[in-house]
Specification:
alpha/beta, single chain, 56% helix, 129 residues, Rossmann fold, 5-stranded parallel beta sheet, 12% strand, 7 helices
């Protein structure tokens, strides 16, 4: 199954963070991985306000160099987003759920609130690293 890495997991993978255990790192390296442009957008916002040192173009380039595809946000994702139940305030998290649902991707996240929300929505494969 193809994997959709959330922003945090993608960053951990890129920088070799010890938060991402060896087994998870190997699984990601061996899988067909995607990153939503929503993650690039989220990172751009956080970079601009000084919360993250990684520039969005560096992030995108390094993800591609690492073998991940950058998936654009489509009207189908926006439509799926609008149908999601209330209960999650972060718009980027909701968009990742909509992307995973629409594209039939397994969402990989270390955010247990997002994990719980995605599981409650149903029809989405989700996994904590």
């Amino acid at each position: 199954m193809r994997l959709l890495l959330d922003t945090q997991i993608a960053l951990w993978w890129l920088v070799g963070s010890p938060h991402l255990k060896r087994a998870a790192r190997e699984r990601i390296a061996a899988a067909e991985c995607t990153v939503s442009v929503a993650s690039v957008w989220e990172l751009a916002i956080k970079h601009r306000i000084g919360k993250l040192p990684v520039a969005p173009d560096t992030f995108s380039n390094e993800m591609r160099d690492g073998g991940a595809a950058i998936l654009p946000v489509t009207d189908a994702h926006a439509t799926a987003y609008a149908r999601l139940p209330a209960g999650r305030a972060d718009p980027f998290d909701l968009l990742l759920v909509a992307v995973a649902q629409t594209e039939k991707l397994k969402l990989i996240t270390a955010d247990f609130n997002l994990l719980g929300y995605a599981e409650a929505v149903g029809g989405i494969a989700v996994e904590a690293p």
